[in-house]
Structures
1.
Amino acid sequence: MPTRFTLVLGDITTQQVDAIVNAANPTLLGGGGVDGAIHAAAGPELLEECRGLHGCQTGEAKITRGYLLPAKYVIHTVGPRYGQEQGREAELLRSCYARCLEVAAERGVQTIAFPAISAGVYGYPLSEAAAIAVQAVCSWVHAFDCFTEIRFLVYSSRAKRMYIEAMQHYCHTMPEDDKIIWSV
Ligand code: APR
């Protein structure tokens, strides 16, 4: 069954999906940006559960309940800090997407929403981050088509343009891809 890829300009905390992905930091104890928004919307119980996870390595992912969020789960991942990972930024960012999908699939998640991991405070150039996000998620879906919908949540029209360019480039390189349906 094909996976629907949806590009949404909006707030990830409002998404009615099984799981939303949090762009966290290694402490998993909250922060600004997406991290701050998700903790604010989920309520204090999310932080309590996160305390028990004892942090998360860059490129890894851990799952919690969503509490007051519409989403049942939050998958916390830690993206690379651009220019500070000894040249492993792209590899670590790809790992974030792959590990989030693995953790989600293990929990039976069928619909999931990603923010632009590392493209804010962590300084990843948006066009590069978008290209890695689309490529990493699409190649994973080819191997394990267990998701009905994957959403990319963007928070500005500039980010939306970057993701559209990334999707168009991917479609150009994989024209016969019948496992993916795009909707923008
Ligand atoms: N919904 C969707 N996207 C959002 C939202 C939101 N509510 N808030 C911010 N964004 C976008 C930003 O515009 C950016 O494009 O998410 C992307 C990721 O930005 P950050 O949240 O800054 O995440 P990141 O760059 O990975 O930095 C992580 O920031 O908040 C701290 O604790 C966090 O230390 C960690 C670091």
Note: DSSP finds five helices and seven strands in the chain.
2.
Amino acid sequence: MRYKFKNKELLERALTHTSYAYERLKDGKFNYERLEFLGDSIINFVISKWLYNNFPEMDEGNMSKIKAALASKEVLAEASRKLGLDDMIRLSKGEEKSGGRSRNSILSDVFEAYVAAVFLDGGLEAAESVILEALKEKMEMVSQTRGMPFDYRSALQEYLMKLGLPVPQYEVIEERGPQHRKRFTVKVCVGNKEFLGEGNSKKEAMYSAAKAAWESIVGKEKEIIKDKFFLG
Ligand code: MN
């Protein structure tokens, strides 16, 4: 799945953190920062184009919101991990020790740099397919909800509000395990139905309860929702 570079130096540069360039290379400037700058623009462009072409009724305010969510640090860092770029980054010893390899800010920068390297090596189309592949799941979620936020808690809340129904109530119903390794169970009520979620924090458990509710409700009533809500 990973793009095959003709010019390996571009890939090397995209994977080189400044700290490594200064510590190990003669050329401190051989790092990913300029590539990152370019890649950031390419990612934003590709997402904008995707939103413009796929959601003809969406206004620019909404498109900006979704673009920001799709190009967020967390999403791009995840893309880096999926491509296995995290294992390939060249960091100084100090940066390595302080956990740089798993830091989202570095991982998202590396994904941006990687995209720019693919663009310079193989053109816009190649860069575009890397981005679309990496963001596929999130984009599917945006399509599924016709542009609603892909955070289940907000999605559920917005959905119920638009139907004129009360906002969902969350309740922690169980806390177990030792202090440093607690597990939480949260219950959310939507109408007369209850959904449960579990997680390592209250927030995580709420999120997974919201996901269960969302999938059950939206999955079952897809057609009704489409008429009543998404296209309304
Ligand atoms: Mn960046």
Note: Residues 36, 40, 108-109, 112 surround manganese (II) ion (CB under 6 Å).
